[in-house]
C-alpha cells in the first residue's frame, strides 16, 4: 500500500461499487484498492445515497458518489476561490472573532457578494491545505484537532454524581470548618485573548486568592491551583467547590496533588457558590471585562488581593479576611 495519499478517483469508485455489490468485506476492499480501511469506511459513509422518499434506491453508486465528493470539495474551496473573502476571514479570526460571528457579520454588512457559513470557516481552518496557517490558535478552545459536530461529551460524565454539591458535608455549607474554598473563572473580552483569572475564596474567612492563567485548559489551571496551595497545611485546603465549567474537569488532580476534595454546583446554579460570585462582583470594580490581562501581572493580582483581604467585613464582625484567615491558620479561632 502506498504511503502517499491520493484522492479516490471515479475508477476507484466504480471498482468499489462492484465490490460492494459482491458483498466483499471492508478489509478485503481496502486491500484490493490499495487503501486504508478507514478511507473505505469514510468513502461509503459520506457518499452513499440516502433518500427517505426513495428507500428502495438507497445505496452506493459510483457516478453519484463522485458528484457528491466533487461538490463537497468545491464548498471547502470557496475561501480559496475568493482570495479577498479569504483574507477578510483570516483577519477576523486573528481579531478573535468566532466563525459564527464572522459568518453573521458578512450577512448583516452585505459587503461581500459571496457568503460563507460558520461550518465552511471551521473546515477552512482545519483542512489539510490551510492547517499550516495555525488559525485554530485563534478559536475559543484552540483545539489542534476539530471535535466532531455534536460529539461534545455530557458534563455529567466529567462531574460524577458522587461530587455533586448535594453530597457535600453540611459542615462545609454552614461555614463551621476552616479550609473549604469556592472557585470560579473570571473571563475577559475575546479580543484580549485566552488569558483569565482563577478566583478562590475561603468560605469561613472570605480570604481571597487570585491566579492568572494564560489559557482555559483544565490541566494547567489545576496545576497552578496545586502550586499555590501546596505550601498550606492540609487542614487549610480541605475542599473546593466549583461550577460545571469544563475548565474544572481536571479536578481529580487536586485530590492527587494536595489531597483536596472537589464539589460541583448543580447546572445553572451559580448561587450555590455565592461567596466567590459576590467576590467576583467586587473584583469587577478593579478588573472590568475589557481589561487586557497582558498588562496585568501575577504581582499586580497579589497586590489587589492584599488590598481586599485587609478590608474589614461586616459578616466577620468587622475583622478583615486576612485576620480571620491567619487566626484559623494558627489555631486561635
TrEMBL record:
The keyword Hydrolase does not apply. Residues 165-329 form the Integrase catalytic domain. It holds the Pfam family HTH_38. InterPro entries: Integrase_cat-core, IS30-like_HTH, RNaseH-like_sf, RNaseH_sf, Transposase-Integrase, Transposase_IS30-like. SUPFAM superfamilies: Ribonuclease H-like. It comes from the Bacteria. Keywords: DNA recombination, Plasmid. NCBIfam families: transpos_IS30. This is IS30 family transposase. It comes from Peteryoungia desertarenae.
